[in-house]
Amino acid sequence: MSNAYDVVVIGGGPAGYPCAIRAAQLGFKTACIDAWLNRDNTPAFGGTCLNAGCIPSKALLESSELYHRMQHEAAAHGIGTGKLELDLAKMQARKDAISKQLTGGIKQLFAANKVTGLQGFGRLLGNGQVEFKAHDGKTEVLKAKHIVIATGSEPVSLKIAPFDGERIVDSWGALEFTEVPKTLGVIGAGVIGVELGSVWNRLGAKTVILEALPNFLPMVDQQIAKEALRHFTKQGLDIRLGAKVLSAKSGKKNVTVEYEVGGESRTETFDKLIVAVGRKPYTKDLGADVAGVALDERGFVKVDAHYKTSAPGIYAVGDVIGGAMLAHKGIEEGVALAEQLAGHHTQVNYKAVPSVIYTAPEVAWVGLSEEQAREKGHEVKTGVGPFAANGRAKAMEQAAGSIKIIADAKTDRILGVHMVGPYVSELLAEAVLALEFAATCEDLALTMHGHPTLSENLHEAVLLVDGRAVHAVNKPKK
């Protein structure tokens, strides 16, 4: 087989593999190189998302939520469960099987679209060349007209809490526990920290989350974030804000964590400690300097509006270029780039990137929060629809949370939608579509929603913006 390609993608995660598939669909001879190895040293496409992030974490979140609901909600439905038993090994095996099915699916998609999948390491050599080193050590040089960097990101490590793979672990390690820790510490109350904390809290671990920032989920509308915090606290998550970790030392039986709150030093011991303080770009041994690819001060690959790097013929997409480190954002960038290489006019709307935290209740948002909208100079009007009045949510025994609409008072245009509640991840697409089409509150108010559905609550929130709700008490107009 010839080693000359039209497109070579380095990285087979959510940004890389869709880019490779779309490029092949558009007629480019394409190869995708991916270096991922699972714990058992088996290679797999899909990157962190499919192997150690989005997918396995959602599998454990679903399993742990079912366990929690059977404990706390079954009786309300008239269902007697008796004594519940937890088989963590089977739960973990199910999680692994789901990931394996999906990563295997990428191989099938590559075959169907005639993408050459190469499992090993890719390194830039300059002059349109990429060195491919297979996991068995064999190397070859590929030539390409277009080279795409999609090497993703990795967990940020802390010098004060170094990973040891046993007691102090990263997000991947937190998905691999073989027994439920009696006590669990989490550094970081962001998306990953709250999700992983929820999993093990539901399964019985006494969980403490230490967050250095004074506000919970500062990227979320604070009215919604405070409501989410109240629900999580009620579930038993001990979330301590303004807690700056000073050190973490791993011993034979536990981890000792020293932290500071309000100027007061405190010490806690945990069986396990998860460090979830964010992610950083992965460019190790990429050869960026050799190829003339510029990185910024934080290590992200610099690109222009069309994903071009500083080196001719080399592009970058996904986590490695910064912005929202989300799989769906990477997918859209990878596809957009492939289409641009084929001469199509495509772009990604970064003002309408959805975000979700898969807790129970879920937290989901798109667009501006009320605080952000006011900072940008908008005259704001809002509507908040509580799920407590939603018939479907009550029937599900999950009538917790609210949906908040943030709109411009002068133009009626929707600026953002922030929610906490049951399955709001599935309601979010309507809000994203509203932002994509520059919809007004009136547009959504005139859109019929099925009854009884959770989506009615989005409709109710829009009606509340202008005091038009039928099934809720409208706020007084000034």
Automatic annotation (TrEMBL):
Pfam families found in the cross-reference section: Pyr_redox_2 (PF07992), Pyr_redox_dim (PF02852)
Keywords associated with the record: Cytoplasm, Disulfide bond, FAD, Flavoprotein, NAD, Oxidoreductase, Redox-active center
TM region(s), chain numbering: none
Cofactor(s) annotated in UniProt: FAD
Note describing how the cofactor binds: Binds 1 FAD per subunit.
Residues covered by the FAD/NAD(P)-binding domain: 5-334
SUPFAM superfamilies on file: FAD/NAD(P)-binding domain, FAD/NAD-linked reductases, dimerisation (C-terminal) domain
Cross-referenced InterPro entries: Class-I_Pyr_Nuc-Dis_Oxidored, FAD/NAD-bd_sf, FAD/NAD-binding_dom, FAD/NAD-linked_Rdtase_dimer_sf, Lipoamide_DH, Pyr_nuc-diS_OxRdtase, Pyr_nucl-diS_OxRdtase_dimer, Pyr_OxRdtase_I_AS
Subcellular location: Cytoplasm
GO MF annotation, one: dihydrolipoyl dehydrogenase (NADH) activity
Domain Pyridine nucleotide-disulphide oxidoreductase dimerisation: 353-461
Domain of life: Bacteria
Broad enzyme group: oxidoreductase
Reactions listed under catalytic activity: N(6)-[(R)-dihydrolipoyl]-L-lysyl-[protein] + NAD(+) = N(6)-[(R)-lipoyl]-L-lysyl-[protein] + NADH + H(+)
Coiled coil: none
EC number of the protein: 1.8.1.4
Record family assignment: Belongs to the class-I pyridine nucleotide-disulfide oxidoreductase family.
NCBIfam families: lipoamide_DH
Additional remark text: The active site is a redox-active disulfide bond.
Name of the molecule in the record: Dihydrolipoyl dehydrogenase
Organism, scientific name: Sinimarinibacterium thermocellulolyticum
Encoding gene, per UniProt annotation: lpdA
